Amino acid sequence: MNELMTAITTGITAFTATNIDDLVILTLLFSQVNKTFRSWHIVIGQYLGFGTLIVASLVGFAGGLILPASWTGLLGLVPIAAGISRLLHPEDDSSATDEPEADISNYSSQVLGFLSPQIYSVASITIANGGDNVGIYMPLFANTSFYSLLIIISTFLLLVGVWCFMTYKLTCQPIVANIITQYGNNFVPLVLISIGVFIVLDHASLTPMALVISCVCLALIMKIIQVYKAPTVSRL
């Protein structure tokens, strides 16, 4: 019993210490839910990304088979790209509606949903923001028994759901919802870009100049993509 309680307490402490910032990110993500970006995209993406961090920690613990920190930091380009996209095309954020979520009980819909890019975007942000998690989880896992390891991982997975529920409910509060509705579309792109810049620089993945050049290239690519997409939309 003592080992069980110790493992649970350790899991809660480690998860909370390494995922406080995820509360902000998840709140911002849930505030952007619309007819193409569903809340279940966020939940599945969060579990997929966090599960990847756990696997990476286990692989690193077992044999040191983990990507260099500088490579992991390049995932910071994902939130940067998302932020630039929102700055360039703010009208896309106004497509949010109060339509109910589509029924996903159908098996084929679930499969297509699981393969959707929205899920992998959320997962990428979670992974990119979780470099410190791996650095903390590896020594934590290395100093626990197999039984405690299972309890800690189970606690982690349970708390991911708690985090998602808390942040979703937070965005449902009238005061929070009004603030986000008024300022969210202007605030979210800057936060995403800031998170990405911090991740890239913190992992020394790119020099500041290389990061600036990368951001300019991302902006040009997105602008070109939008130009090519525009005629298709107009024909519809």
Q: Could you explain the architecture of this structure?
A:
Mean pLDDT is 75; it is low at 94-113. This protein has helices at residues 2-31, 39-63, 69-73, 77-88, 107-114, 117-128, 131-142, 146-172, 174-202, 208-235. 80% of the residues lie in helices and 0% in strands. The chain has 10 helices and no strands. It is mainly alpha-helical and 236 residues long. The chain is globular, with a radius of gyration of 19 Å.
The total count of helices amounts to 10
Oligomerization: single chain
Low-confidence stretches are 94-113
The description of the largest β-sheet is: none
Structural class: mainly alpha
Order of helices and strands: HHHHHHHHHH
Helix content: over 70%
Mean pLDDT: 75
Kindly summarize this structure in a few lines.
This protein has 236 residues and is an all-alpha fold. It contains 10 helices and no strands.
